[in-house]
Amino acid sequence: MEAISAGVSSFNDAFWAYLLIPLLLVLSLYFTVRSGAVQFRLLPDMFRALRGDPGLAADGGKPISAFQAFAVSAAARIGTGNIAGVATAIALGGPGAIFWMWAMALIVGAASFVESTLAQLYKVGGKDGYQGGPAYYMERGLGAKWMGVLFAVIITVTFSLVFNSVQSNTIAAAVSNTVSTATGSDPAPWLPYAVGVVIAVATGVIIFGGARRIAQAATALVPFMAAIYVLMGLVVVAMNAGQIPAVIADIVAHAFGLREIAAGGIGTAIVQGMRRGMFSNEAGLGSAPNAAASAAVSHPVKQGLVQTLGVYFDTLIVCSTTAFIILVSNPTYGAEAGPTLTQNALEANLGSWALHLLTLIILLVAFTSVLGNTFYGASNIGYLTRNPSVMIAFRFTVVVVTFLGAIGSGGLVWTLADTTMGLMALVNLAALAFLAPIACRLLDDFTKQRKQGRDPVFTKASMPELTGVECWDEADLDRLRKVSGQG
């Protein structure tokens, strides 16, 4: 089993480093040029788009707003990788990995814009709101239903089942470590089972309430979770304010190989930074568009801009918080495991109580990831079949998986998930390469209206040559109560 796991891991390293990341970078640079650097040019509009009124759904209730869709995608994006993954990148690639993580986020923001704008365009309606994502734009935009089915199956298994079991396992491990630290002895054998039951029940209560309840939970938890962690990071940075210029200088110097690092120089820094950045912000992977499609907005570009902001929020704020917590503590690169760097840095600056606070943060991070991952799966189950019994069975399966994850271990399953996520991204990027011109046409329409001083509104009648567009007629937009007042 160890040999199989090692073989799959080696394949993943080569697959991501030599195929997937270069492909994402090339396409993102193309999207950047084709869109006139939309990820930089329309930054103010990203914040305006968060404030839009979602109007009414067909059943008279409130559909998912632009901000709620942002929160759902942030819930899935912000996982233990923001804490452990960033630390691992620093441990293996030195401070320079952070520079390349930042660079990656700025470039792939264009890919996030394209995929989320397309998800909005090709979304479908329901009685309680909208759903969509890559599977939908593959079928409706490219006419490749087989591609959509393949993507839907891969993302459902990878995110809603495998990743959810890993997140619940992380929660159980964090609780056990806290109990062990507090009591000075090994936790009781029944503790993981108790934690698993609590996670499963909490997950079930939320996900059986449907997409709206998941969005509401994410909206409540994500800002709270991020605020606690960022505040902790700001306290550590303030305590070491005099070191910040030197830390920034180290990040830049190591990024370009001007100083030697333990892991082997500039190549390792680039690979670690870019790969961890891609894992963290998920731009181009095809996951966030599932949340983007659910928002009720007056123009597809609005949610494309909101999800681009999500990439920045994840990498430039949350990941940077971890980076500065570690780097102001003068870590020894390559000498410690990644997560240990974060733990030791917090303990050194804030005391042992910070380890318990970090456990709380990990609990929130992992649990919100479960909710976001389940949202993605539900959207794609809805694509594969409209049979309500299948959706109920899917939700029960998620609940069972979260319990089993708490009492089991990841191992080979996690390694295989890396492979399936990479294949999922490959399928999505292939679709984006052909559909990007449509997203850019929508962007041109948006900016033209904005220059005229109008709040951009899109109807499919304005581009009648586009096929496969179900929503975006006048009746659909009438449910937006205050179209002219949306950001």
Q: How would you describe this structure to a colleague?
A:
The chain has 487 residues and is mainly alpha-helical. It has one domain (9-485): Amino acid/polyamine transporter I. The protein contains 19 helices and two strands. Strands 1-2 form a two-stranded antiparallel sheet. β1 (124-126) and β2 (129-131) form a beta hairpin. α6 packs across α18 (412-451) and α8 crosses α9 (191-207).
With strands numbered from the N-terminus, the spatial order across the biggest sheet is: 1-2
CATH architecture: Up-down Bundle
- Sheet-strand content, in percent, reads under 5%
Total number of domains: 1
Describe the global form.
Answer: globular
Helix content: over 70%
Helix-strand pattern, N to C?
A: HHHHHHEEHHHHHHHHHHHHH
Cα gyration radius (Å): 22 Å
The largest β sheet comes out as: 2 strands, antiparallel
What is the total tally of β strands?
2
Structural category is mainly alpha
How many helix segments? Answer: 19
Q: Are there runs of 5+ residues with pLDDT below 50, and where? A: 260-264, 481-487
* The top level CATH class name: Mainly Alpha
Features:
487 residues, mainly alpha, two-stranded antiparallel ribbon, 19 helices, 74% helix, disordered C terminus
